[in-house]
Structure formats: structure tokens, C-alpha cells
Amino acid sequence: MTTPTRVLVLNSGSSSVKYQLLDMRDSSRLAVGLVERIGEQTSRLEHTCVASGERREHNGPIADHDAALKAVAEELARDGVGLDSPELAAIGHRVVHGGMFFTEPTVIDEAVLTEIERLIPVAPLHNPANLTGIRTATALRPDLPQVAVFDTAFHTTMPEAAARYAINPRIADRHRIRRYGFHGTSHAYVSRRTARLLGKDPSEVNVIVLHLGNGASASAVEKGRCVDTSMGLTPLEGLVMGTRSGDLDPAVIFHLARVGGMSMDEIDSLLNKRSGLFGLCGDNDMREIRRRIDEGDEEAALAFDIYIHRLKKYIGAYFAVLGRVDAVAFTAGVGENAAPVREAAVAGLEPLGLAVDGELNAVRGAEPRLISPASARVAVAVVPTDEELEIATQTYELVGKKS
Question: In the chain, pLDDT over 70 holds for what percent of residues?
């Protein structure tokens, strides 16, 4: 009997499902796709069969996640790689918040589902959608291992000094208040890939990872283990992001409520959806912001400067946390593609051993690469993230151990 080698990765959002089917013999992709605007009349499914290069798109109402995943199953079946395939070893699910309970990938059962549900108050936008995806996938293939890979797991190695807020610990513990961190699959993948780029084992390398997308976070990774990260109880803390404020004096919230007359829901929406780059200049796309800067737009220039200022503060802070830094790695949409961001983030940090080579920094590519001069004391790298591969790898390794 042939050993199953395929893993389907599902990333279920509140109104979307991203998916990839991978063959773990060589980590190759067999199919990729996206279902978006679930529950609307304008739903869209985009599917690509990697082997043939065929791309299919369907537009029209998709009522719910159950209907969305059934549509995904139909597309995979058309390519001959359906959910009923005996070659499918497991389904790996991205779960945003695992609290302190889940420190590694976990085969999902009722107890796991209950704990993920209990964490909804600290991840109200993400965990409910993740649960919906898990339950729907389980209904479609109840015989197949379903594995949860948690965004927070990589950061559970943080020491208490980094993970605790300076509030009464009994109150904090009662309400599960601590710094959890997010984007963990990306930080894990990129830190290891950076070590490989340097020709070293992750246990020999200290890396600052800068995951810069619409959501953005930094981490300090010491010898393969996270010792600090910028996001906290929720993904709101830390760097300036596309629509999130990042670090903020907590008294701003009291001020907006008492003086501004805003409700808690209005403040929540302001800080999560109408702040960051969008709040500062009306755009959260770095490409558009750079275009406006080139045309002399002062509002866009100030937003960019605030973004870079915060980024530099975290780079400097994590130098202090780690003591020795071997590499700074840029990843995710902005980190991988916005050369001006990388250049500005490093500018002026030459005393720390950081520098960027202009020609190397201008190169675009899908492979990990160094953009620092050969003489630089600290390597600066661009390392494309691959969260789906990381989820598939962790899922497959776990299923292999259990079999």
C-alpha cells in the first residue's frame, strides 16, 4: 500500500478560504486557490492546477464555508487530486490563537476544538473562522487527520520577562492577558531559512525577522527559539501596519472614550481598521504610498517616516535583547518587495553592523538572498516566507509520528 504524501492546507478567514495542496515528497504544489467574499452574491473562487497551469475562476454566490469547501473539493477533483484521494495524508489548518496551551502542531479532537473556542475572546476575528473551516473539513473527510498549526506556537518559548505585561499577575492570569505574538509560522520558517542562507544550523544563529505585510511583526530569534516579538495579546501591538496603529499609549483609549465620546466598539474599529498607514495618509498599499511620495505628497511622506521610525526602534531593541545578531531578515509582501523600506529601515544603523548594497537591494526575486555588502558585520537578507509550506511540513511530520 502506498504511503499518503499529500497535505491540504486550509486558511479559513471570516469570509474567505485560502488553500494549497502539496506533495510532501518534494514539497511541490499541486493546486492553489482562494475563495473570497463568502456569504455574498459576489463570491469568487480562483483555482490553479499547478501541473497543467490551468487557471479557473467562478463568480457567483457561495453561501457559507461549507459550500466554499465543497466547491474547493470539486475543483481539486477536476484535477484528479480530490479530497477522496488515498494519497491525501492530512488536512492542516492555520489557527491564529492557541494561547499557552498549544505549543506545537496538534491533531484536532473535540477537546482541541473546545480550547480553540475558549480562546475566541482574545481572537474574535480569527478563531471563529478557523473553527468553521475545521468543522467543515472534518465533515467532508471525518476519517482523515485534521491538524491545527497555531500562529502563536512559535512564540511560546519567550521568557516570562518578555511575555508578561506589568499588571497584577492574578488579574492577568484570570483573563489570559499576556503577550502571545502572531505570524509564528512565518517567523519560524524565515528564521530557519535565513540560517540555511548563511550556511549554518538554526541553533547557531541569532536572527531578527521582520514580517512586513498589511499586518506586520518583528521577532528576536535566538538559536532557533523566539525570545521576543512585537505583537502581544492581539495582533494590534507593535509595528505600524496597514490599518492597525501598533504601539499606543493605553491612555489614548481612555481619552477617546471620556473626551471624544467614542464607544469601545468605535475605538476598536479605529485602532484596528482605520489607523496605521491608512489612518495616516488614506492608503495602506506601500506601492501607492511610494508613488505619492515620488510626486511630493507630504502626507504620504510623513506616514512612511512614522512607519520606518517604529521599525528602526524594534530593530535596535532586538539587538539589545539578543546581544549578538547574525542576520536581519525581511519577509512578507512589503518586506520582500519594497526596496525603499529595506533601505530606509537600515539607514543610519551602520554602527550596529548593518548596511544594504543598493544594487543587491534593487534585485527582485523569489529566492532567499543577501542584500548586504560582503564586508557587512551583520547579514541583511530578503527571505520570501512560505507559511503554507511550513503548515504542511509541520502537519506531515506530526501525522508521520502518529502513524
Answer: 99
Grid coordinates 485534521 are at which residue? 146
Q: Give the burial class of 149: count Cβ atoms within 10 A of its Cβ; 0-12 exposed, 13-18 middle, 19 or more buried.
A: buried
Helix or strand (DSSP H, E) at 306: helix 298-322
pTM summary value: 0.91
What average pLDDT score do residues 207-223 get? 96
Q: In this predicted model, what pLDDT tens digit does every residue of 289-340 receive, in sequence order?
A: 999 999 999 999 999 999 999 999 999 999 999 999 999 999 999 999 999 9
CA angle in degrees (0–180, nearest 5) for 201-205-206:
155
**Is the CB of residue 153 less than 8 Å from the CB of residue 390?**
no
The span from the first CA to the last CA of the chain, in angstroms, equals 14
Residues 6+ apart with CB under 8 A from 30: 6, 21, 22, 23, 49, 50, 51, 79, 81
C-alpha separations of 345 from 210, 324, 330, 362 in Å: 10, 19, 10, 15
Query: Which position among 151, 228, 283, 386 bears the catalytic label?
Result: 151
Whether 151 is catalytic: yes
Q: What is the DSSP string of 231-292?
A: --SSTTSSS--SS---S--THHHHHHHHTS---HHHHHHHHHHS-HHHHHHS---HHHHHHH
